[in-house]
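Internal QA ticket QA-208
Title: Verify multi-chain structure generation after dependency bump
Assignee: T.L.

Test input:
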Amino acid sequence: MKVAIIGTGYVGLPTGVGLAELGHQVVCIDRDVSKISTLQEGKVTLYEEGLSELLKKNFAAGNITFTTSMADGVVGAQLVVIAVGTPPHPVTHEADMRYVYEAATEMAQYLQQNSYTVVANKSTVPVGTGDNVESLIAKNVAQEKFDVISLPEFLREGYAVHDFFHPDRIVVGANTEAAKKVVYELYQPLLKLNPQCKLLQVSRRSSETIKYASNSFLATKIHFINEMANFCEKTGANIYEVAAGMGLDRRIGPSFLSPGPGFGGSCFPKDTMALDFMARQNNLDMTLVQATINGNNQRIKDMATRILTALDRAEEHPVVGVLGLAFKNGTDDCRVSPAMQILQEVLHSNSKLTVRVFDPQAMDNAKLLLESYATRVTYCHSAEEVCQGADVLAVLTEWPQFRDLDMKSAAELMRQRHIVDCRNMLNADTARALGFTYRGIGIA
Ligand code: UGA
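Actual output:
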């Protein structure tokens, strides 16, 4: 099947490469000229484990191509996937639909008038967007020549390649049989590989809602376990034992019960706020979603306070060492990263405070976001270098290699021995034996 994908971000690119690997002929379209020229050299524009190799393989085989031209990509495609961003409005937090509607309007000029095309929305979009996209396309194309469906994405950043090939479910929001048939053909090779994967067919509006409901539920689960972590710290229980005990109940399940500094990334914060916005538009008060949003914002502030509290107040020029800047491990993405938000809170609190930072993948993206603090940030090349002269070491992203930090040399390199471990990566007993004060999450 010839598939056109509009948008080569964290959703569009892994999806395009995955579909090419399944045997489809994929054209990825993006307005960003520099991104497309990098991709045209067979090189990835973002970090995702396994993506570079898979892209090179399919690019060399001619299964995937890249273009800035909507016409080149869309003409002759049986399926056009919209995978552009829907960033939150800075004030209202509603999803900004500009890019989706621009893509729909532009693509409509090139859809075949003499054959049938399915337009699939993979961007996370407010409920009812499918209707609007359909109206925009119908201005140029006869109604019986196209269908607009909702095909929500459930890939996690950092695991996008793995998740693409091992989905739990594929949700299709389609109102016609013809559209369902195209999607079934698209995913047929994947369904063969994953007999346990269910292809769930629902109405377009239900499908759009499933995406918001899933992300908001997972965010709520994380917020809940974080509140339980606070509770455990006060009561002397251990959050891992509590989560293990809860997770064994099949109705609860063990995943998304890892406590941390709060959820972040480009999806959960945005989608919970957008759901709340849509609810209020419909005169509904979604109190649980609101509590999750507010509680998570407060948690970021609380984590910054933990770091500031650990510092010796007498120190005039405090130095904070930071391990991890990405919003989670396995990605270079710093958008709405709790690590970055905590770091910015800490920098904002005291103009004499400086930080030393390291992340295995996210240094370039972090630099762009920290430009206004440039003179107060030292970019290090290793976790050990971060420790040099630091008063407190804060672990903010759960990169597995941070577990290997040589605590003895960290103790020698640091000016003072304090650890605030927001990901429970370091060994508390070892740290304390070396004279550190150690504060973890949900453990005494
Ligand atoms: C999330 C969803 O998991 C995907 O299914 C969805 O496709 C994606 O959003 C999207 O809408 O595009 P992602 O944002 O990549 O994926 O990241 P997650 O792995 O879900 O983590 C989100 C945040 O929650 C991170 O800050 C992470 O550190 C935090 N988290 C996650 C926890 O604090 N504890 C956990 O147990 C799990």
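Spot checks passed. The chain has a mean pLDDT of 96.
Status: verified.
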